[in-house]
Design brief:
This protein is an alpha+beta fold and about 260 residues long. It has 8 helices and 12 strands. The chain has a 5-stranded mixed beta sheet. Strand 6 and strand 7 form a beta hairpin. The N terminus is likely disordered. It binds benzoic acid. The site of benzoic acid (BEZ) has 10 residues, from helix 3.
């Protein structure tokens, strides 16, 4: 824990700023001992062996967005349903200019054998190419460096398995979103597509998407845009919901 001694001169705002700075730096100190990435960090440009050959991550991404997701183990039931669903949605991710890549602590040989099972689970020909590469992290190096291990799920030797981690990386190679599920809970890949839609929309437009938003639905005007500016910024109109507090913060506008 870092303790900063700063003399503030203008009261609450400075204290809020100080508390945010302290939280940020204590998080940084914390991840010094327990690995982790923060939103906005440049994603590590790691090298890895994958089912499509050796890659350097930033070169692999090129100008695309990226999604890197880990799973606990090859030849396990939940992981098979997840990678099956991810494979079925691969055209949707490509349409959004998102490159997919999976990771687990298994070997290339296991990955190659298991992808045939995944294709069979999807009722596809076993000779079809699997639509995205899988990283072989049998030494757990990347899993440790990226904070992907689930301490509650162990293999037969008592070693932790990878959790169900999702990183979405922007075209600037910065981390835009991370999700971490335990091994026992499979992910919803429709939700991952939905968040990609929100991330891409909000990267281009100063809007925010509300709970359960779906593409095409109205979006929200962020609270840091003053009323006069909002009217000019969103010519399609801004609807402000009346609230008991009389504060005008619940503002909607059609999706730009
Ligand atoms: C599975 O993918 O089915 C699984 C893997 C590890 C722990 C629990 C479930």
């Amino acid at each position: 824990m870092i303790i900063l001694s700063v003399k503030t001169c203008s009261g609450l705002d400075d204290l809020n700023l100080l508390s945010s700075v302290c939280c940020y730096w204590s998080a940084r100190v914390f991840i010094g001992t327990m690995p982790g990435l923060l939103l906005g960090d440049v994603f590590p440009n790691f090298e890895a062996e994958t089912t499509n050959g050796k890659i350097k991550f930033h070169d692999f991404l090129g100008d695309s967005w990226g999604i890197l997701f880990s799973h606990p183990r090859d030849y396990t039931p939940v992981c098979t349903t997840e990678l099956g669903r991810a494979a079925k949605l691969s055209d949707e991710f490509s349409r959004r200019n998102v490159k997919m890549i999976a990771l687990s602590i298994d070997s290339l040989e296991d990955h190659r054998g298991w992808t045939k099972d995944i294709l069979a689970y999807n009722n596809e020909e076993s000779g079809c190419a699997f639509p995205f590469p899988i990283i072989a992290d049998n030494q757990r190096e990347l899993a440790v460096a990226l904070g992907m291990l689930d301490p509650d799920e162990k293999d037969k030797d008592g070693m932790p398995l990878t959790a169900r981690c999702v990183f979405v990386i922007g075209q600037d190679k910065k981390l835009k979103l991370s999700l971490l599920y335990p091994a026992t809970t499979g992910r919803n890949f429709d939700e991952i597509l939905r968040v990609v839609d929100s991330l891409q929309l909000t990267a281009k437009n100063r809007v925010a998407t509300p709970a359960d938003w779906q593409p095409g639905e109205r979006v929200m005007v962020p609270p840091n845009i003053p009323e006069e500016e909002a009217a000019a910024m969103f010519p399609a109109g801004v609807y402000t919901k009346e609230l008991p507090s009389e504060r005008k913060y619940l503002r909607y506008t059609p999706q730009p």
